[in-house]
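[job 0412] stage=fold_complex status=start
inputs:
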Amino acid sequence: MKVLKFGGSSVASSENINKVINIVKKSSLKNEIAVVVSALGGITDLLLEAGDLACNSDVNYKKNLKTIEERHLKVARELIAVNNQSSVLGTIKNKLNKLESTLEGVFLINELSAKTSDKIVSFGELLSSYIISEALINRDLDAVLKNTQELIVTDESFSNAAVKVDKTNVLIESFFKVNKHKIVVLPGFVALTEKGEVSTLGRGGSDYTAAIIAAATNASILEIWTDVSGMYTANPKFVQQAFPIKNISYQEAMELSHFGAKVLYSPTIQPVLEKEIPIVIKNTFDANAAGTLITAKSSNSNPIKGISHIENMTLLTLEGSGMVGIPGFSNRLFGALSQEKINVSLITQASSEHSICIAINSTDTEKAKLAIDDEFNYEIEQHKVDPLIVEKNNAIIALVGDNMKSHQGISGKMFSTLGKNNVNIRAIAQGASEKNISAVIAHKDIKKALNTLHSEFFEDQTKQLNLFIVGVGNVGGKLLQQIKNQQQYLIDNLKLQVRVIALTNSKKMLFNEDGIDLDNWKSPLEKADNLDMNLFHQKVTALNYRNSIFVDNTANESVSNLYARLFKGKCGSCYLQ
Ligand code: ADP
Ligand code: ASP
Ligand code: MG
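[job 0412] stage=fold_complex status=done
writing structure:
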């Protein structure tokens, strides 16, 4: 048997679901398959928001409900033949009525527990799986819907429940033993507690549902179908040059996803790892692309497989001269955090034990500050420990690879690359297993850090030259033309990538961190922000790019007045021409 999981964007519209149906049809010609589906893209967020609005007595929850209703009915109408539609639309409306009653209840009592929130959010997957199973049946495919809530049993940690593996495996095995259908469609993400209350497996949890089913059925492969062609060397939304990793080990995939590569929900690996069931990540919108194969050992010998990052991190530092030798200090610190169910993403402690630094998700900041200051209240009063230092707006960036341990100098290269590009490193952690090296940096530096590390570790050593060009008249226009004509030659022959980051005329200024398209700059420049040389200077300084060149094509004094500031400012490697 094969298990195929389709994510939110793969099932976001009837057009996309038709692509899913083609993939399922082809796969089912040769295999029995289980198809795990997410909610229609964006629906989970709408449901969660509806719950919050209702809880805050905001009638706007009804708008969300309306959008949710319209999207599902539209998709069903477009996928199901007219003469079969009425019963399907009736069932959808019935489910939506139940959702509406739950939201009304929340609105009336102004209370939303994690348990009720799970009940609300579960409708996303319950609706999508129902519609997709009906669409498959409508195409005369031998499909059946099975509600995963009858198969996956969890504890009561609502919104992020832990699966009771043994009970779950028995239920899954016995269902598939008697199942006679070629295709079984199942909602991802949702489950029930032992008491029969609705629970969910955490955001992105449909991947995990699919892995649980793959492990329990000894599937030959777990296919995760999404909107990108595999696990990339870095998040492709941030790094244009990132490319799909052909083959990666379970451990590496787990590290990358743990540090933010959300293309795979990190708990997904664990169920399939023991049975060595391969995972392949494929693109629903480019089904022929190879994707990424995840297996026990990767055939790729590059010591570094990818770079990932987590946004919205808060750095907490607890320090004080009296901390040295306080018995059970770490125990108390982590105990206080675990009591509040706060997840710690990174820990560093100086050997002097004088300070300890941890990174947590920003949403937990206030809770953590209260819990820790409360725990060390006595020591703080005695001035043995300082009140917790809280720094928001940070991010973690991590370099991942199984073979890093057998290669010297990787961390040195990582930190010097970041340093040379003016990315300040606030904390560093490297596990003893050396499968990852992670660093805490400022949130504003994420894109720069990812791109410079990617260029250092994954791209042939093409250097980047960043141009800030003021004036695009006769001289400036000709210069742009020449740069455009030379760009490819310079990359091919001198390994020099010349990017124009900013352009101004006498009225407007245009910035593009990825480089302005020199085939099409006139109209974007017309629509850009009004020219303000002070703001221009601030932006150049904030970008802080290495290898920056400021080009003045004007005879304007207000521009030449900027020269001294550019030289003096933080933009240390900025040249004038
Ligand atoms: P789905 O809805 O199919 O589960 P997700 O949105 O959860 O899809 O995951 C796919 C997204 O993960 C991509 O669109 C991409 O933005 C993001 N992503 C982050 N890091 C990576 C990475 N290293 N490789 C590929 N995608 C990544
Ligand atoms: N629909 C859920 C979410 O958006 C689960 C999933 O898509 O994996 O988090
Ligand atoms: Mg996902």
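[job 0412] summary: Residues 7-8, 38-39, 44, 124, 188-189, 203-207 surround aspartic acid (ligand 2) (CB under 6 Å).
[job 0412] exit 0
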